């Protein structure tokens, strides 16, 4: 769920490359803009992000 293309990650999150899940979760809790969006729950299924070519289909 960590968006490595986000400005927040590029500025603050580089040290997370070799971190464990707890460190990443803590980073995301403090920096929610680094979460891949959108997060959508559909039919008990979590859909994370989108593919640009599918966005307007």
Number of helices: 3
The main sheet orders its strands as 1-2
SSE-based structural type: alpha+beta
Taking all Cα atoms into account, the compactness measure Rg is: 13 Å
Output the helix-strand order.
HHEEH
Number of domains: 1
Give a short account of the largest sheet. Answer: 2 strands, antiparallel
User: Which blocks of ≥5 consecutive residues have pLDDT under 50?
Assistant: none
Number of strands: 2
Helical content stands at 25-40%
General form: globular
Ends: how far apart? 23 Å
Portion in beta strands: 5-15%
What's the quaternary structure here?
Answer: single chain
Q: State mean pLDDT (0 to 100 scale).
A: 83
Overview of the molecule:
- By secondary structure, the protein is of the alpha+beta class.
- It has one domain.
- 35% of the residues lie in helices and 14% in strands.
- The protein is built from 3 helices and 2 strands.
- It has helices at 7-12, 21-30, 52-55; strands spanning 39-42, 45-48.
- A two-stranded antiparallel ribbon has the order 1-2.
- A hairpin with a 2-residue loop joins strand 1 and strand 2.
- It starts with 6 loop residues before the first helix and ends with a helix.
- 7% of the residues are buried.
